[in-house]
Amino acid sequence: MTLLKFVGKTCGFVGYVFQYACVTHCTFEYLGDFVMCSGPSMEPTLESNNILFTEHLSPRMQRLRRGDIVIAKSPSNPRQNICKRVTALPGDKVRGQFPRRSQVVPRGHVWLEGDNTSNSSDSRVYGPVPIGLVRSRVVCRVWPLDKISSLTEY
Amino acid sequence: MFLKNMFKSMFFGIPVGLTFLDTFGYVARVEGISMQPVLNPEARDTDYVFLSRWAVRDYNVKRGDVVSLVSPKDPNQKIIKRVVGLQGDVVSTLGYKNQYVKIPEGHCWVEGDHTGHTLDSNTFGPVSLGLLNAKAVAIVWPPSRWQQLEAKLPQHRRPISIANRH
Lengths: 154, 166
Description:
The structure holds 2 protein chains of 2 kinds.
Chain A: H1 2-31, E1 32-37, E2 50-55, H2 57-60, E3 69-74, E4 77-88, E5 93-95, E6 102-104, E7 109-113, H3 123-126, E8 129-130, E9 134-143, E10 149-150
Antiparallel strand pairs in A: 1-2, 2-9, 3-4, 3-9, 4-7, 5-6, 7-8, 9-10
Chain B: H1 2-23, E1 25-29, E2 48-52, E3 66-70, E4 78-85, E5 90-92, E6 100-102, E7 107-111, H2 121-124, E8 127-128, E9 132-141, E10 147-148
Antiparallel strand pairs in B: 1-2, 2-9, 3-4, 3-9, 4-7, 5-6, 7-8, 9-10
């Protein structure tokens, strides 16, 4: 009888863990999550090992604006995420680095550039990025604690 | 009490369902004629396919797989195509700006089976694997069309050179 009770309790506990895991998954997938960024490409705005709070609603609803900092999947490696600033929207004219000529950002794409112009591999290298790769928009920095700040421009 | 119970079951039920659909897969309706004759062989009846999210969790696709991906031109739209080439392959294109294209790292070349009536890589070029959404595994509706979708590539659409997997 005790064994039965024990099994029942365990199942109940596992069920609870499962339910909360699903709630967590949905929150992180559809509402917002925390991202740790690394690399020099967004200096001086962001430095390595800053933790950012990002929201997933505006990329889903196509509400990206020029100046937003976004997290996107890297076009050349889907397992890697990149953190860049949107500098041009579809229809805008931009100047690439290689080939060095101006081009128009095609429909459904955005132009991403790092703030650290000299040390950033971004759209100037791999061209416009499909909006489908953009995962989230950075809202604020939450770590380190003395540098908590909002990173949106409006 | 009733309201509280209902709220509680919704609070847990909806995320559990969404997580299941996100992780394992879901059934979707195929629209359009771009994958004829495999899908929607006659324009008036539409097929429903099971899209497996689990199969693409590591972005591993094979040449010939039918996959669904987010359209590079319109992020709200999902398209269903067949993978023709993977990174490093050289494909001979049909009406793209270059006759031969070497597929860059992390990209793939997708085409519809219904050549000439499909908007695919021959229009927008290689697509990033990050846009991959799911792999179509089987036709589940109507029952008379029930069948698995196998990976096959017509002889003339094979890539010209196939990259070695490292």
